Amino acid sequence: DLISGWTENLAVWNKASHAILAQVQELESQVPFAMKSFHSDNGGEFLNWPLYEYLTGRPLKVPWTRSRAYRKNDNAHCEQKNWTHVRQLLGYQRFGHPELVPLLNNLYGQEWSQYQNHFRPTFKLLQREKKDGKTVKTYEQKPQTPYQRLLESAQVPEPTKARLRTQHAALDPFALKKNIEIKLKKFFTALGNLD
């Protein structure tokens, strides 16, 4: 989500069109707001008919934008959370075993998502301008979590905000972090046993 920075991750074993569509549908059911647009890179996993029909065959069509051909910088919007939400957690290693996908999705869907979205504040870029050949960036004064940004947004309905507040009140960041470490250990132990 570009407004709040809310991020959900899911692992998928293959890049077949129906597998990607199933994961997009799963992600859409997990986020606390309605999908209003869809932006993807130019990979064949996204440029397929089942996903196109799913996004455009609704009563309220979801605008689908994608990176321009040969414009690699367009992918920055798709790839912006790869470092903070994937690489810092798992590194750059490729995982070649389908048995690992449920373990990873359990971690992503439970503790990792809640920890990142409720307790990890970020600064949002407010303005970027050129001065004397240099780019000067201005960020907001106080960092906020995606959860806090959703509560402040006028676009999020009050029942959704109430549900988020209830969910947030039940969370303990220290317990989440501990469970993340336990599940990571279980994941890498399983990986070691499979290799």
Instruction: Summarize the amount of helix as a percent range.
Output: 40-55%
Parts with pLDDT < 50 across at least 5 consecutive residues: none
Q: Structural class given helices, strands, pairing?
A: mainly alpha
Strand order of the largest sheet: 1-2
Arithmetic mean pLDDT:
87
Based on Cα principal axes, name the global outline.
Answer: globular
User: For the terminal residues, how far apart are their CA atoms?
Assistant: 36 Å
Tell me the fraction of residues in β-strands, as a range: 5-15%
**Number of distinct beta strands:** 4
What is the count of DSSP helices, taking H or I runs of 4+ residues? Answer: 8
What does the main sheet amount to? 2 strands, parallel
Order of helices and strands: HEHEHHHEEHHH
Radius of gyration: 18 Å
